[in-house]
Amino acid sequence: MARTMDADQPKNIVLTESSGKGEIVSDRSPVLEHPIFIALRWFNSGISDYANAIRTTMPIVVKSTVTAAERIQKKLDGFVVEDHGKVTLKAHGPHAAKEMIDTIDEGDRLSRSRLPEVVARSFFIGFFTLYDAFIGTLLKAIYSRQPELFKSIKREISLSDLLEFDDIALVKSDMLEKEIDSFRRDSYVEQFLKLESKLEIKTLRDFPEWKQFVEMGQRRNL
Q1: Beta partners for residue 221, in sequence order
Q2: Exposure string for 87-105, b = 16+ CB within 10 A, e = fewer
């Protein structure tokens, strides 16, 4: 006996039942994924990786800093001497004196350390590095789906450079790489304006976090 699956399940998949066993048979041909979808999926995956890395790393960094501070304080407590209400640090013997001085220096370095801030900043910058890479991949996907956009690239190439290419496809690829490099050097505001003009889409900036996105993009270089 055979029955088709529910309408909201993939088509061309039939569930067959014979001898009490179920079997799923698919006659679908492989579907080529849209290049823009591939770029978006890669970007979203990267963002998820960063988010997981932050959730995993930051508590460890903070805990290690606190643990180091507690360890240093415990060592210093061994040198504390209270005399008539006055607390001082004293060491008996040269080895103890060296240990005390080294501990004080370590505590001084730790007090100036901004390790959690440094790690957080690296993640912050990493987000935008990922975004910049995504923009390049996205542009390549857009041009691959709309080859007529190559006509909008206004770049000069010398005859000697042109003769180095074996076919026009390589010329187009080289021109696109240069166009993307130039695009990435623009501010995010300029990038969005260019995309809106090139793609004739006027709503790319119409999302609530636009101002925050621009501000964070500017701050990443501070």
Answers
A1: none
A2: eeeebeeeeeeeebeebee
Q: Percent of the chain scored above 90 by pLDDT? A: 51
Q: Are residues 149 and 142 in contact, defined by beta-carbon separation less than 8 angstroms? A: yes
Instruction: For the chain, report the end-to-end CA distance as a whole number of angstroms.
Output: 68
Helix 188-199 vs helix 210-219: crossing angle, to nearest 10: 130
H-state helical runs in the chain? 35-77, 94-112, 115-145, 159-162, 168-184, 188-199, 210-219
Half-sphere exposure of 34 (CA within 13 A, CB side): 9
Give the whole-angstrom CA distance, residue 16 versus residue 5.
10
Give the predicted TM-score (pTM) of the model: 0.68
**Which pLDDT score, from 0 to 100, does residue 14 have?**
41
SS3 26: strand
Per-residue pLDDT band for 27 (boundaries 50, 70, 90) equals low
Answer left, alpha or beta for residue 213, where phi above 0 means left and psi between -120 and 50 means alpha.
alpha
- Distances in whole angstroms, Cα of residue 28 to Cα of each of 13, 14, 18: 8, 11, 22
